[in-house]
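User: Run a structure prediction on this.
Assistant: Running it now.
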Amino acid sequence: MKSIRGAIAVVDNNELSIISSAKSLILSVMKENNITEEDVVFALFTVTQDLNQAFPAKAFRELGMNSVAAIDTVAPNIKDDLAGCIRVLLTINNSSNDVKHVYLNDAKTLRPDR
């Protein structure tokens, strides 16, 4: 088993923006890592405290991935954290040795080494 991290920012605090951003993040992580729904064991999403209009895990259902267990939580309120940030941790069961973490839009600043 392996885990893949990803994040996207800056997301507007409305349902459409949160869900569409989460979909973009999920699809990007899956594409970059050449994984399918069957590879994903579970997903953990965190959102910054300013995003309170939707659950990003809902994006899995809207993408038709009903077999993936997913849960949302609020990230700790850290000084100078990015606003409007969705983070995901996908745990996968896959034999690939090369894991590519994905940081989109302003979330690229979270990992300048990537």
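The domain at 2-110 is CATH 3.30.1330.40 (60s Ribosomal Protein L30; Chain: A;).
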